[in-house]
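Students often ask what a holo structure prediction actually looks like on paper. The answer is less mysterious than it sounds. You provide the chain, you provide the ligand, and the output is a string of C-alpha cells encoding the 3D arrangement of the protein together with fe (iii) ion.
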Amino acid sequence: LTILGIETSCDETAAAVVRRPADGGTGEILSNIVFSQIEAHAPFGGVVPEIAARAHVEHLDGLISRALKEARLDWDDLDGIAATAGPGLIGGVIVGLMTAKGIAAARGLPLIAVNHLEGHALTARMTDALPFPYLLLLVSGGHSQLLVVEGVGRYRRLGTTIDDAVGEAFDKVAKLLGLGYPGGPALERAALEGDASRFALPRPLINRPGCDFSFSGLKTAVRQLAEGLGRPDDKDKADIAASFQCAVADVLASRTENAMAVANEMIRPGHRRLVVAGGVAANMMLRERLTVSAHAFGYEFVVPPLKLCTDNGAMIAWAGAERLALGLTDPIGTGPRARWPLDADATPARGAGV
Ligand code: ATP
Ligand code: MG
Ligand code: FE
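The corresponding C-alpha cells follow.
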C-alpha cells in the first residue's frame, strides 16, 4: 500500500509518501517533507492558531507536489490519502482534512482520517518490526500518557497528565527563562552546559502509586526559583534548565516504571517492549533514563529516529496504511475533531462534514 500522508494539526505543515508491504513488515518512507512554521510564530513565543491555519493553506499544496515528486510517483500510484483529522488546532486540521478529501474525491481514492496521536503511537512500527501489544509513553506538546497499544485503534490508557503536558512544561519553562522558541530543544541545549544538582526541584507524584503525571507544580517551582535569583545569568539559566530536565526525566521514569508493573499483567515475558513517542521523545536525557528503567523491568526499549518523533507526514501516512490494510477507511463527510482522545472512540466523527 502506498499512502500520501498530510499533517497540519499544529505548527508544522507536512506531506509524505510511505509504502507498507503487503506482508505487514516495516514501512518505506519514499518522501517526508516538513515545513516548520517556527519563524512565523517565534515573535509571539508560541503557536498563534490563526497564523498557523493561514500558513498551512499557503504551503500545503506545494508540499504535497514535492512529496510526490521526491517519491517519483504519480497520483495513480497511490492507494489512499491519509490526513490528520484531530486532535489539534481546528483551523489547521480543517485545511489538511479538506485537502485530503479533495484529492480523494477527485482521484477516487480512499480517505483515511487519522488521529494524530495514533500517528505518534504507531510510528515505531514503521521503523522497527514491533508486534502488538506494547507499552507506550506518549509525550508531546499537548499530551502525556501511558498506554498499552493492543492494536490499531485499540488503546488502553494507564495514566495521563492531570495538568500540563510535558512538552508544554518544557515550552513554558524555556519561555520564562528566555531560552527561545520552540522551548524543548532550546532547553535541552541550555541544559547541556548546566549543573543538574545545583537546585533541588520537586518531583511531583514520584514514588507514589499510579501512572498519572503532574507538571504544573514543577513549572511553578521553576518560576519561583528564577524570580528568587532576580536576574538569572546564563550559568543560572543553564543550571535551572538542567535541574528541570532532570526532574522531568525522574518523574517520567518513575511513572513509567509503575506502568511497566501494571503492563506485566497484559504483556507476556519475552514480548515486553516500552516505546516512547511524541516530540519530547527527542530528548536525549529522557531516552537514557527510560533505557535504564526499561532494562531494569525486563522491557526492550524502542524509540523512533529523532526526526520521526516530532510532527511529520510519514507518521500520518503510516497510520493511514495500517488502517487501510485493515479495511478501515472513512467517508468523505468525516469531520475534524479539535479533541479526540486515543483511548475513546478511535473512529472519526461522522456526518459533520467540513
Ligand atoms: P500533540 O502531538 O500532543 O498534538 P504537538 O504535535 O504540538 O502536540 P509534537 O510535535 O509531537 O507536539 O512535539 C512538540 C513538543 O515536543 C514541544 O512541546 C517541544 O518543546 C517538545 N520537544 C521537542 N524536542 C524536544 C527535546 N529535545 N526535549 C524536550 N522536549 C522537546
Ligand atoms: Mg510543532
Ligand atoms: Fe504531535
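The radius of gyration is 20 Å.
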